[in-house]
Specification:
Single alpha-helices involved in coiled-coils or other helix-helix interfaces, about 10% strand, about 60% helix, Heat Shock Protein 90, 5-stranded mixed β-sheet, 3 domains, alpha+beta
Length: about 425
């Protein structure tokens, strides 16, 4: 039970509330506002005759208003000292000028000081003792007033005598006011701490997400590096074979040598283009995985694998290039073919994991304009399945790969139903 009370009153909490950078200016403005309010309400009391029995010098009355309001300037930097000072001033003013102390405005200033001490004290244990001591002083002053100051008002009602009614009003009103100030201070401190924790958690999550995205991009770039190594090695080996063949038949069969040189030129151009598109995204690392790099010819096998899992996948190939026919896929650079393969792989995997669709369509298109281009489009007609949201890292890798090849990508829900992934990659 004791521990619950200590937790509720935030006594054992070690969190330190940070001070705002412009606290002096803000607290000076707050103190000025409270002073204006106190002066206006006090003059209102005086205008209706509520202070007619107060014979204290007017300058002292204003001094009693100014001093506690001025102390509020230090309420955040020295909260416990400010609260203690204002409480002592409250008791002293109550003895010197009791009529002024009962006015609403000056009492709100005193209560605001108590609230500020609880809301801003940094050592919660010390704050508990200081605020508790202030409340005991106020309770003792109230008890002293009830015991030693004679009541000379109304004689009372049929049920409650006058002195008891005054005691009830005095005790209950102070319990409500003081309890409200203490409760508001605790609630503000707890709410700010909770908000600070949530902001810290959000920053941590954002930092971890950024780190995961960076790791995913780095991993994808490492895979691209490995694949580029394979592609370049393939082109270099082909160039070496064709160069040797050209050297052997250069004198006897010049046409065959010319064809070999054309093949060398095509392979070298393709290798240089792919290296230019990919080298900017690479990072060095040691990789031991030497599995063959997939290309366009492996897309059909990939589709067959997904069909075997129960996903009905239609594969269509549309080639609008002049002279399109058998062997035209060989004209597509290996990097472009790999990107198309990875796109189909990621898109179909997302359909299986995150969609209710039982079928999908894969269309590969090849065309020619200012440059040759290859395009793949994967669509389905399912709905997103709840509780299957992924990290999005696969899509990040897809965008990274397409951007490295100078292509364009469209990923998102269709206007009717389902999801659509479209990638177009130019090549020479």
């Amino acid at each position: 039970m004791r521990e619950r009370w200590r937790q509720a009153l935030t006594i054992d909490d070690g969190w330190v509330r940070p001070l705002p950078s412009r606290r002096w200016r803000l607290d000076g403005l707050i103190a000025l506002i409270w002073l204006v309010v106190a002066v206006v309400i006090t003059e209102g009391y005086r205008a209706v005759g509520a202070l007619a029995q107060d014979h204290t010098d007017l300058r002292l009355q204003y001094l009693y208003l100014i001093v506690p309001c001025a102390a509020l300037v230090f309420r955040r930097r020295f909260p416990l000292a400010t609260t203690s000072f204002v409480v002592v001033l409250w008791v002293a003013t109550g003895q010197l000028d009791p009529e002024l102390t009962t006015t609403l405005a000056i009492q709100f200033v005193y209560l605001f000081a108590i609230y500020s001490g609880i809301a801003w004290c940094r050592d919660r244990v010390r704050g508990g003792w200081v605020i508790g001591g202030c409340l005991l002083v106020l309770a003792g002053w109230i008890g002293y007033t009830l015991v030693f100051e004679a009541y000379d008002g109304h004689s009372g009602s049929e049920i409650v005598p006058g002195w008891l009614g005054m005691a009830m009003i005095l005790v209950l009103s102070n319990v409500i006011y003081l309890g409200g100030a203490v409760l508001l201070g605790i609630l503000e401190w707890r709410n700010l701490r909770r908000r600070t924790e949530l902001e810290q958690q959000a920053r941590t999550i954002e930092s971890q997400a950024a780190e995961l995205r960076s790791q995913a991009v780095d991993a994808e770039r490492l895979r691209i590096a490995r694949e580029l190594h394979d592609v370049v090695a393939h082109h270099v080996s082909v160039i070496g074979v064709q160069a040797g063949a050209a050297r052997r038949v250069l004198d006897k069969q010049p046409d065959a040598a010319r064809d070999a040189l054309v093949g060398i030129e095509r392979s070298s151009r393709s290798a240089v283009g792919e290296m230019r598109g990919l080298l900017g995204t690479l990072r060095s690392s040691v990789e031991t995985d030497r599995t063959p790099t997939p290309d366009l010819d492996d897309v059909e096998a990939l589709v067959q694998d997904y069909r075997a899992t129960g996903l009905d996948v239609d594969l269509h190939v549309v080639d609008d290039r002049p002279g399109a026919g058998a062997g035209q896929d060989a004209d597509v650079p290996a990097g472009v073919g790999l990107a198309i393969y990875r796109t189909v792989q990621e898109a179909l995997a997302n359909v299986r994991r995150h969609s209710s669709a039982t079928d999908a369509s894969v269309v590969m298109r090849f065309g020619q304009g200012d440059r040759n281009w290859a395009e793949v489009e994967i669509v389905d007609s399912g709905q997103p399945r709840t509780g299957t949201a992924g990290t999005g890292l696969g899509l990040v890798g897809m965008r990274e790969r397409v951007a490295a090849l100078g292509g364009e990508v469209e990923i998102g829900p269709r206007s009717t139903q389902g999801y659509r992934v479209r990638v177009r990659l130019p090549f020479d």
